[in-house]
């Protein structure tokens, strides 16, 4: 059984969380660290948008009024409100024997850790493959700028509703996959910080979103703490990926890279508002 590194959990700023994920990816590409899993939170609660998403879809006045942070992810996808959730990230080389060449299939493999994590919490999550026209129609989006309103290939759903959102980037021969595991969901808050051309459209899209997204609290019927979820998904990744997660620390190089990426990238308007 292969041993991967598990980094300590922490709640960090928007810029630091994204810088940390990228720093680990760079260090792994240089052969300095093993495959790595991280679970983390956000301080303050943060709206992140996808790499290709337009910044015009965000209501920055509302973000400021509500004290919500903002960052652009290095991965694709749409807006996610990181608040009542556990965020995970996985860093592994594309050439790893476990990893298929296909992006979609690599999602499927890595998401087995999520499937087992939900089972550890007593929830039966399934992977959705939008291979058929019927599935595409069932889960099609109204075009919302918010994530979770429709699952992607091999995203996880519980009782027909999306419960995680994941995204990938591939750089330096390394896969970074990260995503949100929803402990609870404040739909009103999410839609209050996104821009819509009319209130009617906001309410229409929000109603569709509510039908297609769900949190652990809604399905389990109880509050699941960050710590309980973290332990469930740690065991889930070990079982689903057939690896052992050994607690470790950031290297000095990773810390230096993180500081550099915060200053030159993730805290700058050039990065966060470039589209």
UniProtKB/TrEMBL annotation:
UniProt-listed GO biological process terms: protein lipoylation
Keyword list, A-Z: Transferase
UniProt domain BPL/LPL catalytic: residue ranges: 31-245
InterPro entries: aa-tRNA-synth_II/BPL/LPL, BPL_LPL_catalytic, Octanoyltrans_LipM/LipL
Gene3D superfamilies (UniProt xref): Bira Bifunctional Protein, Domain 2
Record bears the keyword Transferase: yes
The keyword Transferase belongs to this UniProt entry's keyword annotation: yes
GO MF term (any one): transferase activity
One Pfam family, short name: LplA-B_cat
Protein name, per record: Octanoyltransferase
């Amino acid at each position: 059984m292969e041993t991967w590194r598990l980094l300590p959990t922490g709640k960090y700023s928007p810029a630091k969380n994204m810088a940390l994920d990228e720093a680990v990816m760079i260090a792994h590409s240089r052969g300095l660290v093993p495959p790595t899993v991280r679970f983390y939170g956000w301080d303050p609660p943060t709206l992140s948008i996808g790499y290709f998403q337009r910044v015009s879809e965000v209501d920055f006045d509302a973000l400021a009024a509500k004290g919500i942070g903002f960052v652009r992810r290095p991965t694709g996808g749409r807006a996610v409100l990181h608040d009542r959730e556990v965020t995970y990230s996985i860093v592994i080389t594309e050439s790893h024997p476990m990893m298929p060449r296909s992006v979609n299939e690599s999602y499927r493999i890595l998401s087995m850790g999520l499937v087992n994590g939900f089972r550890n919490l007593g929830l039966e999550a399934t992977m959705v493959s939008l291979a058929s026209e019927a599935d595409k129609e069932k889960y099609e989006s109204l075009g919302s700028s918010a994530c979770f309103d429709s699952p992607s290939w091999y995203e996880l759903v519980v009782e027909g509703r999306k419960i995680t959102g994941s995204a990938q980037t591939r750089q330096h021969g390394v896969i970074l996959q990260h995503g949100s595991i929803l402990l609870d969901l404040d739909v009103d808050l999410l839609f209050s910080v996104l821009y819509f051309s009319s209130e009617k459209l906001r309410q229409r899209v929000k109603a569709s979103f509510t039908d297609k997204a769900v949190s652990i609290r809604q399905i389990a019927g109880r509050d699941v703490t960050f710590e309980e979820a973290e332990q469930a998904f740690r065991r889930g990744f070990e079982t689903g990926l057939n690896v052992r997660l050994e607690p470790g620390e950031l290297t000095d190089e990773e810390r230096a890279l993180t500081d550099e990426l915060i200053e030159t990238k993730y805290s700058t308007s050039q990065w966060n508002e470039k589209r």
